[in-house]
Every structure is written in structure tokens, then in C-alpha cells.
Fold this sequence. Notes:
Elements: H1 2-33, H2 36-43, H3 49-57, H4 78-112, E1 125-128, H5 132-200, H6 208-215, H7 228-252, H8 260-288, H9 295-300, E2 303-305, H10 306-312, H11 314-320, E3 325-326, H12 327-332, H13 337-344
Amino acid sequence: MFVSQAWPGLWRMVALALVLLVSLGVTQPVLAQADPEREAATAVGGVSPDTWRQVRSGETDANYRDTRFDTNYNLINASGEAWRQLRNRWVSPFGLIAIGGMLAMIAVFYVIVGRKELSAPRTGRKLPRWPLMVRSLHWTVATLFIVLALTGLNLLYGKFVFRPLLGDAVWGGMISASKIAHNYLGPLFGILLIVLLARLLKHNWPRKHDLEWFKKGGGMVGKAHVDAGEKLWFWLLATVGLAVIISGLVLDFPNYGQSRDTMQWANIIHGIGALGLTAVALGHIYIGTIGSEGSLEGMTTGYVDETWAKDHHNLWYEEVKDQAIGEETLASDEPTTDETAGRST
């Protein structure tokens, strides 16, 4: 009777033991998977945080470096991040300040001073100013400059302006077109700019009276074929412009062994130089168009009025005043005008 009463209790104890054994068998793998040390060791091959810090700093062996090129860059490119910060925090704001500041100064100057009119009525007698070749080079280079400036500005700032307005699809097409135009027209601009600079070099050597021109802020201070302000623009193109061309070629043709550092510095130099030239070019465009009466005619027709020559380039006027041609004669003798203009330059 005692045995028959004990059997149910024994069965319950055996069943409980089996349940405990099964539960231990299930929970043991779960505990093993939840072990942080074992998980980290199997997931990343035992790479510790200290090793990742060494990878970032470059203090590791060749196994953690990009061995495809002659460089010591590793899995984390700290130099590239430094370039990105310099470009975004300094170069981009510099462009906005330079270009925006120039536009603001032009607007204020035009409102306060207005257009510079001729000091006397036009005489109707024209002096040969620029020959056809110079004018053709000038307008070709100017057109390329404007296209490169607009495409470059789009590449730098377009994502902040056009992307929110037009959407990703249209903006993506604009960026792609801008990149292609910029890359292919850049070398052509460089070649033609060098040709134009070589053609105009003889007119732009510094002279003593140029310093007087700067001291007096312009005006009638011995202005020959080009004044000191025009010479300053010429030499900016000859120095900063050439730096922009060379850095652009480095970026355009990355398959000649340039290191990543070289490419990054070329990008910074290209951006600063191009943005600065764009800002100064706005002043050049203003003075040559709405800012000064009669200035644009010299680069469109090749001739300027005597009054304009006296006002803007008095020394040059004394040299060429005997070549003055009446408007009627000029209109009837148009095919020979470029030959005459060529002799004056």
C-alpha cells in the first residue's frame, strides 16, 4: 500500500527532472550566443577597438592598407575627411562671400555713382582699338569662362539650390551635363587663354605711371593702350588663371600617377582660384558693359570714338590720333578696318 501511494510522487519527480534537463539544453546555446566577447570574436575576427584606432591613424601593417597604389592610405582615409572639411567649411563659404560681395559692391556703386559717361560729345571719328583676331579670341575665351563658371558653381552649390526646387531626377541630369561640359571645355579654355595672354602681353608690361594710377584710384594718369586696372586683370589671369588651368588638368587626367593628396590639393587650389577669378570677372564685365559708356564698342566693332580714347587712354590716343577715321569712311571701307586696327596694336 505504501509503494502504491509513493509511485505518483516518484513519477512527478522524474518528469520534473526531465523538464529541467531539456530546459538546460535549450538555454545553453542561447547563453553562448549572448556572450558579448564570443560574439565580437566571431563577428570581426578578434579585431579590438585599439586595432581600429591604429587603422584610422595609419599605425598598422600593410594588411590594413590599400596596396593597389604607391600610398600608405589605409581602410579609413583621414586625409580625405580633412579635405572634405576644408572644402565645405572654407572654400564654399569663400566663394559665396567673394561673388556675393562683388555683386553687392557693383550694385551699390551703380546706384551711388551710376554709369561713367563721356566727358564730351562724341566726335564721330573712330580710332582702331582691337583687331579681329584679338576680338575673336577674347569672345571665345569669355564664352568658355562663363560656361565653366556656371557649371563649376552648379557642381559646388547646385545641390543646395536646384535639387530642392527641381527634384533629384532633373538635378542629377544637370550635374551630369555640368560635369561633362566642365571636364571637356576646361582644357580648350586653357589653351585659348594662353594664346590670348601671349597676344596681349606686349600691352601689359608694368610701367611707372601704373603706380600713380593706383595711388590716385584711376583717372587721367598716363593711361596707354591699357590702364593699370586692365593690367591687373591681365596678370591675375596670367597667374591665378594658369594655376586654375594646371590644377584642372590634374583633376581632369587622374591616370598619370597622382596621389590622393595631390588630387585633393589640386581640387582646393582649383576651387579657390576659380571662385576668386569669377568674382573679379564680374567687375570686369560691369566696367566693360553698363559701367562705362563706349567701352564695349572697342571689343565688338574694333573701334572707339576719339572722345572715349581721350577719357580712358590719353597716352594711347596721342600715339594713334592720326589714324582717326570718320564714321562714313569706316562704313564704306569695312573690309580694311581690321588691317588698320592691327597696325595700331
